[in-house]
Write a structure and sequence with these properties.
Strand content: 15-25%
Number of helices: 5
Order of helices and strands: HHEHEHEEHE
Low-confidence stretches: none
Number of domains: 1
Helix content: 25-40%
Number of strands: 5
Mean pLDDT: 96
Shape: globular
CATH topology: NADH Oxidase
């Protein structure tokens, strides 16, 4: 799977909307992620409104790039009615990674801007999107056609591998 070794964090985008077919593929990839007990605790906000994107950019000191993105997907999780609540953020991590990999495979760029577990950032996103009390914001993923793509650095490090034979 080339996207694993090709994907990088992209924070600058050309001024071009992302086609709806590609947005659907990103969301399908997200929902194909594994989850504890197959609980699938996720929900998604797809944001293209420039004013709302600018408000999301203010939710974290690291989210400025959201303002210039043509699209942001906000990954959320249910805070009630799940079988394994202690695993929802792990589930959302897998879901978010699937979005990043699918974006790369579609020629798009994206970056994982974690809001969880920082309650003030999660609450800021919740307020911007007028989310119901039953959902929590996990991450904001700005996405679009990248201005530039950098080669991924090889992070393979044998000193981190322990073998038991």
């Amino acid at each position: 799977m080339n996207s694993i070794f090709h994907r990088t964090s992209i924070r600058k985008y050309v001024n071009q909307p992302v086609e709806e077919e590609k947005v659907e593929l990103l969301l399908r990839a997200a929902m194909a992620a594994p989850s504890a007990g197959n609980q699938q605790p996720w929900a998604f906000y797809v944001v293209t409104n420039p004013e709302v994107l600018a408000q999301l950019a203010a939710c974290s000191p690291y989210a400025g790039c959201v303002k210039e993105a043509p699209l942001a997907i906000v990954t959320c999780y249910k805070n009630e009615g799940v079988r394994f609540p202690e695993y929802v953020e792990i589930d959302l991590s897998a879901c978010t990674e699937n979005i990043l990999l699918e974006a790369d495979s579609l020629g798009l760029g994206a970056v994982f801007l974690g809001m969880a577990p920082l309650k003030e950032r999660m609450q800021a996103v919740k307020e911007v999107l007028h989310m119901p009390e039953t959902l929590e914001a996990f991450a904001v993923i700005p996405c679009g056609y990248p201005k530039t793509v950098n080669a991924q650095r090889d992070r393979y490090d044998t000193s981190r591998i322990y073998r038991i034979e």
